[in-house]
Amino acid sequence: MKIASVVGVRSEFIQASPVSRELRRHNEEILIHTGQHYEPSMSDAIFESLGIPRPTYNLEVGSASHASQTAAMMEGLETVFEREDPEFVLVYGGANTALSGALVASKMQLPLGHVEAGVRCHNRSIPEEINRRITDHLSALLFCPTQTAVGNLEREGISQGVHLVGDVTYDVALQSAQASRGRDIVDRLNLRPGDYLLATIHRPASVDDAGILAGILGALHDSGQPIVFPAHPRTRKRLEAFGLLERFRDLLRIVDPVDYLDFQALLMNARKVVTDSSGVQKEAYFFGVPCITLRDETEWIETVEDGWNAPVGSEPEDILHAIAHFNPSGTKSKSFGDGHAAERIARILDGIR
């Protein structure tokens, strides 16, 4: 079967890594990169570190408003789908890339599958929430990472084509853990294992307001902990525009984005992680690293229920309190599967030939 896999952002590259490998055992995969994330550190470095095949197509859409970016992706995807005539389209997560792939597949009457289906934060002001809901309602096959995701779909009236497969990012975490432990980035940055905080901040709600961003960075500094902060290109632009880069350069260890394996190495060795990233919340949970989430809600309620994730929002005093006092020590459930989600997805797709 010819399968068109559509990816465009860092989290989708990671998710596609094990799925692509399994699909190619018995299928022809056309890997399409929309170019939503296009900086080498956010794209090429992830492909290389995880051994993902080079994309068959790169639409090179780049940055734009939500509407302009989605429209450009749709135009490019329509052209590719017309040329390649895939028998199935696969999208991941909740970025504009997933929405674009879902809309074009639907308009062209191509069967659609959604990896990471049913995930909800129940906050419609977050663009990914809207993208996820639309994509799920257009999909013929919905590959859910958790039982919570299955339940979310049931409450929206979706029961056909739903499969609980586990989380493909857990597959990647397990498969790459040994390689990540072999990385020397902690030494290169002169950090001591277990003696620093890892920070990632990139969402518009965190970085588009100078006061909010300054408050978050101020709280990190005031914690008195060594901080390593791989700055997303978008975040770095905001830091420069707001005059915060020079203000905090000597107070926080602001570094360029790192590849997947280096990031996992930093995460495994961190005392805690402070993030607004959906994916990092899970990765911290996988490796037993306390996570302080700079949002009021999370898609991954399992990480909160198990006591390893504290959504605190962006108020500096709440961030400081969590850094000082959030110290989980409980066990973790197997909510995210057994590390074989990609194999299950491939078997299900093999069954619809």
Anisotropy-based shape? globular
> What distance separates the N and C termini?
7 Å
CATH second-level architecture of the largest domain: 3-Layer(aba) Sandwich
Helicity, as a percent range: 40-55%
CATH topology of the largest domain: Rossmann fold
> Strand order across the biggest sheet?
3-2-1-4-5-6-7
Secondary-structure element order, as H and E?
EHEHEHEHEHEHEHHEHHEHHEHEHEHEHH
User: Mean of residue pLDDT?
Assistant: 94
Q: What does the largest sheet look like? A: 7 strands, parallel
Strand content: 5-15%
Q: Treating each run of at least 4 consecutive H or I residues as one helix, how many helices?
A: 17
CATH superfamily of the largest domain: Glycogen Phosphorylase B
- Give the number of DSSP strands: 13
Content-based structural category: alpha/beta
Radius of gyration: 20 Å
Number of domains: 2
